[in-house]
Amino acid sequence: MEKTKHMVALENAGITLFKVRKWVNERVRRGRNKGDLKRIEFAEEVIVNNEAYAWDVYKAMKNSVMYYASYSGYTGKVELIIPHIFENGSLAYWGKKLAEFDIEFNEESITAQPHQVAE
Prior knowledge:
Blueprint lengths: L4 H8 L4 E11 L9 E12 L2 H19 L4 E12 L5 E12 L4 E4 L9
Antiparallel strand pairs: 1-2, 1-3, 3-4, 4-5
């Protein structure tokens, strides 16, 4: 994906944004909405130029959702990304993924180690 002017400006200024988010959904088991997903938890944090703190927040969010990983009927993820920035300056829900923990499959994938974020 092509870099926007905002991404280039932040890069030139030596600024890196990190975005950590978590969400947990529960599958509705009864009633007319059976099978639908009901949001239980959602949190999102944007961190500027502090990679170590971003990894700490990721680990804390991962620990807070580990409870749900042991039960069926729950889905969700915890992600640490460097977000894509749109032309209007808003942050996208996607970007360069550094780490992800999937509650449903109890799997973690880390694509970059702390303090080794490659451009």
